[in-house]
Protein backbone atom coordinates (compact mmCIF):
# COMPACT_ATOMS: atom_id res chain seq x y z
CA UNK A 1 0.00 0.00 0.00
CA UNK A 2 1.59 3.26 -1.17
CA UNK A 3 1.09 5.67 1.74
CA UNK A 4 0.81 8.81 -0.37
CA UNK A 5 -2.19 7.45 -2.28
CA UNK A 6 -4.26 6.68 0.79
CA UNK A 7 -5.76 9.00 3.35
CA UNK A 8 -7.59 7.50 6.30
CA UNK A 9 -9.58 9.73 8.67
CA UNK A 10 -8.27 9.74 12.25
CA UNK A 11 -11.36 7.86 13.43
CA UNK A 12 -11.04 5.10 10.81
CA UNK A 13 -7.29 4.80 11.30
CA UNK A 14 -7.72 4.41 15.04
CA UNK A 15 -10.47 1.82 14.62
CA UNK A 16 -8.37 -0.25 12.20
CA UNK A 17 -5.26 0.02 14.39
CA UNK A 18 -7.23 -1.08 17.44
CA UNK A 19 -9.01 -3.86 15.56
CA UNK A 20 -12.48 -2.35 15.96
CA UNK A 21 -15.33 -3.10 13.52
CA UNK A 22 -15.53 -0.76 10.52
CA UNK A 23 -18.21 -0.57 7.82
CA UNK A 24 -17.33 0.77 4.35
CA UNK A 25 -19.82 2.96 2.49
CA UNK A 26 -19.82 3.85 -1.20
CA UNK A 27 -20.13 7.38 -2.53
CA UNK A 28 -21.75 6.88 -5.97
CA UNK A 29 -25.02 6.55 -4.09
CA UNK A 30 -24.37 10.12 -2.82
CA UNK A 31 -23.23 11.69 -6.11
CA UNK A 32 -25.28 9.76 -8.67
CA UNK A 33 -27.83 7.70 -6.72
CA UNK A 34 -29.98 10.20 -4.82
CA UNK A 35 -30.95 13.87 -5.24
CA UNK A 36 -29.75 16.65 -2.91
CA UNK A 37 -30.50 17.17 -0.01
CA UNK A 38 -31.70 13.57 0.54
CA UNK A 39 -28.30 12.21 -0.47
CA UNK A 40 -26.59 14.22 2.27
CA UNK A 41 -29.12 13.59 5.03
CA UNK A 42 -29.11 9.85 4.22
CA UNK A 43 -25.30 9.69 4.23
CA UNK A 44 -25.20 11.38 7.64
CA UNK A 45 -28.00 9.25 9.04
CA UNK A 46 -26.30 6.06 7.81
CA UNK A 47 -23.08 7.02 9.59
CA UNK A 48 -25.03 7.70 12.80
CA UNK A 49 -26.75 4.30 12.62
CA UNK A 50 -23.43 2.51 12.18
CA UNK A 51 -21.92 4.27 15.21
CA UNK A 52 -25.05 3.51 17.26
CA UNK A 53 -24.45 -0.20 16.58
CA UNK A 54 -20.87 0.03 17.85
CA UNK A 55 -18.99 0.17 14.52
CA UNK A 56 -17.13 2.96 12.71
CA UNK A 57 -18.41 4.20 9.31
CA UNK A 58 -15.91 4.73 6.48
CA UNK A 59 -17.35 6.50 3.45
CA UNK A 60 -14.94 6.18 0.53
CA UNK A 61 -14.28 8.69 -2.28
CA UNK A 62 -11.43 10.06 -4.41
CA UNK A 63 -10.21 13.62 -3.73
CA UNK A 64 -7.02 15.36 -4.68
CA UNK A 65 -4.96 12.37 -5.91
CA UNK A 66 -5.94 10.32 -2.85
CA UNK A 67 -8.28 7.52 -1.90
CA UNK A 68 -10.11 8.98 1.08
CA UNK A 69 -11.42 6.51 3.64
CA UNK A 70 -13.68 8.18 6.19
CA UNK A 71 -15.14 11.58 5.30
CA UNK A 72 -16.09 14.38 7.71
CA UNK A 73 -19.35 16.39 7.45
CA UNK A 74 -17.80 19.03 5.25
CA UNK A 75 -16.43 16.47 2.80
CA UNK A 76 -19.78 14.64 2.67
CA UNK A 77 -21.52 17.94 1.92
CA UNK A 78 -18.98 18.77 -0.79
CA UNK A 79 -19.62 15.45 -2.50
CA UNK A 80 -23.40 15.73 -2.13
CA UNK A 81 -23.60 19.19 -3.73
CA UNK A 82 -20.89 19.14 -6.40
CA UNK A 83 -22.08 18.76 -9.98
CA UNK A 84 -18.90 17.40 -11.53
CA UNK A 85 -18.13 14.10 -9.82
CA UNK A 86 -16.73 11.15 -11.76
CA UNK A 87 -18.37 7.78 -11.25
CA UNK A 88 -15.43 5.54 -10.40
CA UNK A 89 -15.44 1.78 -10.89
CA UNK A 90 -12.32 -0.47 -11.07
CA UNK A 91 -11.60 0.71 -14.62
CA UNK A 92 -11.76 4.42 -13.68
CA UNK A 93 -9.62 4.40 -10.52
CA UNK A 94 -6.22 4.97 -12.22
CA UNK A 95 -7.37 7.94 -14.33
CA UNK A 96 -9.35 9.72 -11.61
CA UNK A 97 -6.59 9.29 -9.02
CA UNK A 98 -3.75 10.27 -11.35
CA UNK A 99 -5.52 13.32 -12.77
CA UNK A 100 -6.64 14.61 -9.37
CA UNK A 101 -10.35 14.51 -10.18
CA UNK A 102 -13.16 14.20 -7.67
CA UNK A 103 -14.53 10.69 -7.83
CA UNK A 104 -17.35 8.77 -6.21
CA UNK A 105 -16.74 5.05 -5.85
CA UNK A 106 -19.15 2.35 -7.05
CA UNK A 107 -19.61 -0.94 -5.25
CA UNK A 108 -16.65 -2.40 -7.18
CA UNK A 109 -14.24 0.46 -6.43
CA UNK A 110 -15.40 0.72 -2.81
CA UNK A 111 -14.72 -3.01 -2.34
CA UNK A 112 -11.19 -2.60 -3.71
CA UNK A 113 -10.42 0.32 -1.40
CA UNK A 114 -12.04 -1.30 1.62
CA UNK A 115 -10.20 -4.60 1.20
CA UNK A 116 -6.86 -2.83 0.72
CA UNK A 117 -7.10 -1.30 4.20
CA UNK A 118 -8.63 -4.39 5.81
CA UNK A 119 -12.33 -3.46 5.96
CA UNK A 120 -14.42 -6.61 5.39
CA UNK A 121 -18.01 -5.35 5.60
CA UNK A 122 -19.69 -2.83 3.30
CA UNK A 123 -23.23 -1.42 3.22
CA UNK A 124 -24.92 -0.07 0.10
CA UNK A 125 -28.38 0.21 -1.48
CA UNK A 126 -28.30 -2.08 -4.49
CA UNK A 127 -25.44 -3.74 -6.35
CA UNK A 128 -24.88 -3.58 -10.11
CA UNK A 129 -25.44 -6.65 -12.26
CA UNK A 130 -26.21 -7.99 -15.70
CA UNK A 131 -28.22 -5.42 -17.65
CA UNK A 132 -31.32 -6.47 -19.53
CA UNK A 133 -30.27 -7.67 -22.99
CA UNK A 134 -26.80 -8.06 -21.45
CA UNK A 135 -26.48 -11.27 -23.45
CA UNK A 136 -26.32 -8.94 -26.50
CA UNK A 137 -24.65 -5.81 -25.16
CA UNK A 138 -22.23 -7.56 -22.75
CA UNK A 139 -23.11 -4.84 -20.21
CA UNK A 140 -22.33 -6.61 -16.97
CA UNK A 141 -21.41 -4.43 -14.00
CA UNK A 142 -17.82 -4.62 -12.75
CA UNK A 143 -19.46 -5.05 -9.32
CA UNK A 144 -19.96 -8.74 -10.18
CA UNK A 145 -16.33 -9.27 -11.20
CA UNK A 146 -15.23 -7.57 -7.99
CA UNK A 147 -17.46 -9.79 -5.88
CA UNK A 148 -15.70 -12.70 -7.57
CA UNK A 149 -12.22 -11.57 -6.54
CA UNK A 150 -12.24 -9.23 -3.52
CA UNK A 151 -12.80 -10.20 0.12
CA UNK A 152 -15.68 -8.02 1.29
CA UNK A 153 -19.21 -8.88 2.39
CA UNK A 154 -21.67 -6.49 0.74
CA UNK A 155 -25.02 -5.86 2.44
CA UNK A 156 -27.59 -4.70 -0.14
CA UNK A 157 -31.33 -4.85 -0.84
CA UNK A 158 -30.63 -6.99 -3.90
CA UNK A 159 -30.61 -5.58 -7.41
CA UNK A 160 -33.14 -3.30 -9.06
CA UNK A 161 -35.20 -4.77 -11.84
CA UNK A 162 -33.54 -2.27 -14.21
CA UNK A 163 -31.26 -5.31 -14.41
CA UNK A 164 -31.78 -8.90 -15.46
CA UNK A 165 -32.04 -10.37 -11.96
CA UNK A 166 -31.96 -14.01 -13.09
CA UNK A 167 -28.78 -13.60 -15.15
CA UNK A 168 -27.19 -11.53 -12.37
CA UNK A 169 -27.72 -14.44 -9.98
CA UNK A 170 -26.30 -16.86 -12.58
CA UNK A 171 -23.10 -14.81 -12.92
CA UNK A 172 -22.74 -14.68 -9.13
CA UNK A 173 -23.10 -18.46 -8.99
CA UNK A 174 -20.55 -19.00 -11.77
CA UNK A 175 -18.11 -16.84 -9.82
CA UNK A 176 -18.66 -18.61 -6.52
CA UNK A 177 -20.24 -15.66 -4.74
CA UNK A 178 -22.59 -16.81 -1.96
CA UNK A 179 -25.94 -14.99 -1.98
CA UNK A 180 -27.18 -15.04 1.60
CA UNK A 181 -30.79 -14.14 2.32
CA UNK A 182 -30.81 -12.19 5.57
CA UNK A 183 -34.03 -13.20 7.32
CA UNK A 184 -35.53 -14.02 3.91
CA UNK A 185 -35.91 -16.92 1.48
CA UNK A 186 -36.55 -14.59 -1.47
CA UNK A 187 -33.93 -12.56 -3.30
CA UNK A 188 -35.14 -8.96 -2.91
CA UNK A 189 -35.54 -6.52 -5.80
CA UNK A 190 -34.56 -3.26 -4.10
CA UNK A 191 -37.97 -1.51 -3.83
CA UNK A 192 -39.78 -4.80 -3.27
CA UNK A 193 -39.05 -7.62 -0.83
CA UNK A 194 -39.26 -10.29 -3.51
CA UNK A 195 -38.05 -10.71 -7.09
CA UNK A 196 -39.45 -14.11 -7.98
CA UNK A 197 -35.96 -15.60 -7.41
CA UNK A 198 -34.69 -17.35 -4.33
CA UNK A 199 -31.40 -17.13 -2.41
CA UNK A 200 -28.73 -19.84 -1.99
CA UNK A 201 -29.12 -19.91 1.75
CA UNK A 202 -30.93 -18.08 4.50
CA UNK A 203 -29.59 -16.98 7.86
CA UNK A 204 -31.35 -15.05 10.58
CA UNK A 205 -28.53 -13.66 12.74
CA UNK A 206 -25.48 -11.46 12.09
CA UNK A 207 -23.30 -14.08 13.84
CA UNK A 208 -24.25 -16.60 11.14
CA UNK A 209 -23.24 -14.21 8.36
CA UNK A 210 -19.92 -13.73 10.18
CA UNK A 211 -19.42 -17.52 10.38
CA UNK A 212 -19.97 -17.88 6.63
CA UNK A 213 -17.53 -15.05 5.86
CA UNK A 214 -14.87 -16.64 8.03
CA UNK A 215 -15.44 -20.09 6.53
CA UNK A 216 -15.14 -18.77 2.98
CA UNK A 217 -11.89 -16.93 3.61
CA UNK A 218 -10.41 -19.66 5.83
CA UNK A 219 -10.90 -22.01 2.91
CA UNK A 220 -8.66 -19.66 0.96
CA UNK A 221 -11.48 -18.70 -1.37
CA UNK A 222 -11.03 -15.20 -2.71
CA UNK A 223 -13.98 -12.98 -3.37
CA UNK A 224 -16.92 -11.52 -1.53
CA UNK A 225 -20.40 -12.38 -0.38
CA UNK A 226 -23.78 -10.81 -1.07
CA UNK A 227 -25.92 -10.33 2.00
CA UNK A 228 -29.41 -9.73 0.61
CA UNK A 229 -31.43 -7.71 3.09
CA UNK A 230 -34.95 -6.79 1.93
CA UNK A 231 -36.41 -3.29 2.24
CA UNK A 232 -38.43 -2.96 5.49
CA UNK A 233 -42.08 -3.99 4.90
CA UNK A 234 -43.50 -0.57 5.82
CA UNK A 235 -41.38 1.12 3.09
CA UNK A 236 -41.68 -1.59 0.40
CA UNK A 237 -43.29 -0.71 -2.95
CA UNK A 238 -45.38 -2.79 -5.31
CA UNK A 239 -43.17 -4.86 -7.66
CA UNK A 240 -45.48 -4.53 -10.69
CA UNK A 241 -45.87 -0.77 -10.33
CA UNK A 242 -42.10 -0.30 -10.20
CA UNK A 243 -41.67 -2.71 -13.10
CA UNK A 244 -43.88 -0.51 -15.32
CA UNK A 245 -41.86 2.59 -14.42
CA UNK A 246 -38.58 0.79 -15.01
CA UNK A 247 -39.73 -0.40 -18.44
CA UNK A 248 -40.50 3.18 -19.40
CA UNK A 249 -37.08 4.37 -18.20
CA UNK A 250 -35.38 1.55 -20.15
CA UNK A 251 -37.27 2.57 -23.30
CA UNK A 252 -36.13 6.18 -22.89
CA UNK A 253 -32.53 5.09 -22.41
CA UNK A 254 -32.70 3.11 -25.63
CA UNK A 255 -34.25 6.03 -27.55
CA UNK A 256 -31.53 8.37 -26.30
CA UNK A 257 -28.79 5.86 -27.04
CA UNK A 258 -27.42 5.84 -23.47
CA UNK A 259 -24.82 3.09 -22.91
CA UNK A 260 -21.79 2.21 -20.77
CA UNK A 261 -21.23 3.78 -17.37
CA UNK A 262 -23.96 6.38 -18.01
CA UNK A 263 -26.78 3.87 -18.19
CA UNK A 264 -27.16 3.12 -14.45
CA UNK A 265 -27.21 6.80 -13.33
CA UNK A 266 -29.58 7.63 -16.23
CA UNK A 267 -32.05 4.92 -15.23
CA UNK A 268 -31.86 5.79 -11.53
CA UNK A 269 -32.58 9.40 -12.38
CA UNK A 270 -35.54 8.62 -14.63
CA UNK A 271 -37.06 6.17 -12.13
CA UNK A 272 -36.85 8.87 -9.48
CA UNK A 273 -38.60 11.39 -11.74
CA UNK A 274 -41.29 8.96 -12.92
CA UNK A 275 -42.13 7.51 -9.51
CA UNK A 276 -42.05 10.63 -7.38
CA UNK A 277 -41.26 10.70 -3.70
CA UNK A 278 -42.36 7.17 -2.90
CA UNK A 279 -39.36 5.46 -4.45
CA UNK A 280 -36.97 7.89 -2.78
CA UNK A 281 -38.51 7.14 0.63
CA UNK A 282 -38.08 3.41 -0.01
CA UNK A 283 -34.50 3.97 -1.14
CA UNK A 284 -33.64 5.92 2.03
CA UNK A 285 -35.31 3.31 4.26
CA UNK A 286 -33.51 0.35 2.71
CA UNK A 287 -30.10 2.02 2.81
CA UNK A 288 -30.51 2.78 6.52
CA UNK A 289 -31.64 -0.78 7.17
CA UNK A 290 -28.61 -2.14 5.28
CA UNK A 291 -26.32 0.07 7.37
CA UNK A 292 -27.79 -1.30 10.59
CA UNK A 293 -27.40 -4.93 9.50
CA UNK A 294 -23.89 -4.32 8.11
CA UNK A 295 -22.78 -2.79 11.41
CA UNK A 296 -24.18 -5.79 13.31
CA UNK A 297 -22.34 -8.14 10.94
CA UNK A 298 -19.11 -6.17 11.35
CA UNK A 299 -19.40 -6.35 15.15
CA UNK A 300 -20.11 -10.11 15.00
CA UNK A 301 -17.25 -10.75 12.55
CA UNK A 302 -14.77 -8.91 14.75
CA UNK A 303 -15.89 -10.82 17.82
CA UNK A 304 -15.34 -14.04 15.88
CA UNK A 305 -11.87 -13.38 14.52
CA UNK A 306 -10.40 -11.58 17.53
N1 LIG B 1 -27.91 0.53 -7.97
C1 LIG B 1 -28.68 1.34 -7.22
N2 LIG B 1 -28.16 2.54 -6.81
C2 LIG B 1 -26.89 2.94 -7.14
C3 LIG B 1 -26.09 2.05 -7.92
C4 LIG B 1 -26.64 0.86 -8.31
O1 LIG B 1 -29.80 1.00 -6.91
O2 LIG B 1 -26.46 4.04 -6.75
C5 LIG B 1 -24.66 2.43 -8.26
C6 LIG B 1 -23.68 1.66 -7.35
O3 LIG B 1 -22.60 2.52 -7.03
C7 LIG B 1 -23.22 0.52 -8.23
C8 LIG B 1 -23.18 1.20 -9.56
O4 LIG B 1 -21.96 0.00 -7.85
O5 LIG B 1 -24.35 2.01 -9.58
C9 LIG B 1 -23.17 0.22 -10.73
O6 LIG B 1 -22.90 0.89 -11.91
P1 LIG B 1 -22.56 0.04 -13.25
O7 LIG B 1 -23.84 -0.66 -13.58
O8 LIG B 1 -22.21 1.07 -14.28
O9 LIG B 1 -21.45 -0.89 -12.89
MN1 LIG C 1 -22.10 -1.24 -17.27
TrEMBL record:
Q: Does Manganese count among this protein's keywords?
A: yes
The cofactor(s) it depends on are:
Mn(2+)
Task: Name the catalysed reactions.
Answer: D-ribose 5-phosphate + uracil = psi-UMP + H2O
Question: Quick one: which residues bind substrate?
Answer: 87, 107, 141-143
Q: What InterPro entries would the database entry show?
A: Indigdn_synthA-like (IPR022830), PsuG (IPR007342)
Active site, UniProt feature? 26, 160
Keywords from the UniProt entry: Glycosidase, Hydrolase, Lyase, Manganese, Metal-binding
The molecular function terms in GO held by this entry are:
hydrolase activity, acting on glycosyl bonds
Give the cofactor note text.
Answer: Binds 1 Mn(2+) ion per subunit.
Q: Which residues bind Mn(2+)?
A: 139
Quaternary structure and interacting proteins, as annotated: Homotrimer.
What this chain does, per the entry, is described as: Catalyzes the reversible cleavage of pseudouridine 5'-phosphate (PsiMP) to ribose 5-phosphate and uracil. Functions biologically in the cleavage direction, as part of a pseudouridine degradation pathway.
The protein depicted here goes by the name Pseudouridine-5'-phosphate glycosidase
Species source reads Laceyella sacchari
